[in-house]
Specification:
three-stranded antiparallel β-sheet; mainly alpha
């Protein structure tokens, strides 16, 4: 018997719909205001600012985190390859899918791309290829080739993200410890090959599906790495943040701090923080909506990646509906798909991607037509794709909260016996007890999910309202298709949250 989590009650859903109506009308009808650039610079905090800045500049801080994460990663590999095949008793599957993947998405809101700075995949690749624990490497095994122009975009990362979703939900590696460990090793191999062939951190910048997901969502993070005093950067002509110095490597994703306006490609490696001779680079707290609303620049490949994120995030929720398995079984009978139903699943995944993109493209085309064809399709498509980002992020957070809150119990036993030696599968009584032992109360979970759905919709409306000035200045009713797209997607996500959801394992 499969255990399911209860869905969001109808009263909470109605509250979300009412809040959506009020916020949508408020944003679209009230006079628009430019998002404020107010920030809290951590280096300028009274008493603790200076010591905190010095602490964050120390290379051993990031090195220590890298060593810790590499140790956990190696334990995941060992547990997956040599531990019990029982997924819910194995350190590899529980930590990777129930804890890390759920917590990673939540951490982006508070910590931005910090995960990328300590990522064990890139750490191992750098250590093996560059022959340095940290700092600038004068030797190594890399050919330092430039990435071919055809690969200098987010299409490779989007393709790998779709494949990762196919492996996770279709092949079912989330319940297979050996497959989980093998996937982790495969990603390390890809990172090593990329580091051996290409200059800097090409894998992080162009290929990594997790890193590019973190980068996209970090546009909605409440923290950023920016100049402390912009005027100092404006006068700088040495650009150590970009070129590095004798001891610190250049920016691995080729960013200049003085011109940085978005988090997307910053991987929080700390190089600019350590190399700036003026110590003018620091972390600061900001509005989580400003970057997506006005600062980020629209690009065609990024637009498709954002839409891919939205489609795949929704698809995760769809596949955890109790009716999904019977739907796939029925489809398999119709098309003669046998075995593990991979053909049926692939058709479902492809349909999900196609429907989402078609809906957005239709909204763009209608917006273009209603505005008198003042702008090209690609420009409108790229510009308004930012509205899909908070819709994806909010639902992803709400969905992952469910897993993290309901499926993270009994970690002490898991850590004390990571290989799951001499363990038995979870019985129904133990599953029921885990179901009841939530990290927070159920009402608190429902409240957080409701707030997230309203928050994501509110930001999407603000993006549509503000971004119109760049492509369709003065447009009013011609924006209706984009507004309806946001309403439809958010209502669908609310409906998904209302449904019972099957446990991962």
């Amino acid at each position: 018997m499969t255990m399911t989590h209860p869905g969001l009650p109808i009263t909470w859903a109605l509250g979300i719909v009412i809040a959506m109506l009020l916020t949508g009308l408020g944003v679209m009808l009230i006079r628009s205001e430019t998002p404020r650039d107010r920030v809290i610079r951590l280096a300028r905090l009274p008493l603790i600012g200076a010591p905190l800045q010095r602490f964050l500049q120390r290379p051993w801080l990031l090195l220590g985190l890298k060593i810790l994460f590499v140790a956990v990663f190696l334990l995941i590999i060992a547990a997956g390859l040599y531990g019990t095949p029982i997924a819910e008793r194995n350190f590899a599957t529980v930590i990777t899918w129930n804890i890390w993947w759920a917590a990673l998405i939540i951490s982006i809101f508070f910590l931005g791309t910090s995960w990328c700075g300590a990522c064990p995949w890139d750490t191992l690749a750098s250590w093996l290829v560059r022959h340095r624990l940290w700092g600038r490497s004068a030797s190594g095994l890399s050919l330092n080739l430039k990435v071919p122009k055809v690969l200098r975009n987010l299409w490779p990362a989007l393709l790998l993200l779709i494949i990762l979703t196919w492996l996770e939900l279709g092949v079912g590696i989330t319940t297979n410890p050996k497959a989980t460990a093998s996937l982790a090793l495969l990603i390390v191999v890809l990172a090593i090959v990329s580091a051996a062939l290409y200059e800097d951190k090409a894998f992080c910048r162009f290929f990594c599906p997790v890193g590019r997901t973190v980068g996209a969502y970090s546009q909605l993070s409440m923290i950023e790495l920016r100049p402390i005093e912009p005027d100092i950067c404006a006068r700088c002509d040495t650009l150590e943040c970009y070129r590095g110095d004798d001891n610190i490597a250049p920016c691995p994703t080729h960013l200049v701090m003085g011109r940085l306006t978005q988090n997307t490609y910053c991987i929080s490696c700390g190089n600019c923080l350590q190399s700036c001779p003026e110590q003018n680079v620091g972390w600061q707290i900001r509005s989580p909506s400003r970057e997506a609303i006005q600062d980020a620049r629209p690009r065609w490949d990024e637009a498709w990646f954002i839409l891919g994120l939205l489609a795949l995030t929704s698809f995760h929720g769809i596949t955890m509906l109790p009716a999904w398995e019977s739907l796939m079984t029925g489809l398999a009978q119709q098309i003669g798909d046998s075995g593990n139903l991979l053909i049926s699943f692939s058709l479902g995944l492809g349909l999900d991607l196609a429907v989402l993109v078609a809906l957005f493209a239709l909204a763009v085309r209608l917006t273009q037509w209603l505005s008198g064809n003042r702008q090209g399709f690609r420009q409108i498509f790229s510009t308004f794709s930012f509205a899909a980002l908070p819709l994806a992020f909010a639902y992803h957070l709400a969905h992952n909260l469910n897993h993290l809150v309901r499926e993270s119990s009994d970690l002490t036993t898991l850590i004390s016996n990571p290989l799951g030696t001499a363990t038995q599968p979870l019985g129904m009584m133990e599953k029921h007890l885990r179901h009841l032992q939530m990290l927070i109360s159920q009402d608190s979970l429902f409240l957080l999910q409701a707030l997230l759905m309203v928050f994501g919709f509110w930001i999407a409306m603000r993006i549509i309202r503000h971004r119109r000035s760049g492509v369709l200045p003065g447009a009013t009713w011609s924006l209706l298709p984009m507004v309806l797209f946001a309403v439809l997607i958010n209502l669908f996500h609310v409906w998904l949250l209302m449904q019972p959801m099957t446990m991962r394992m």
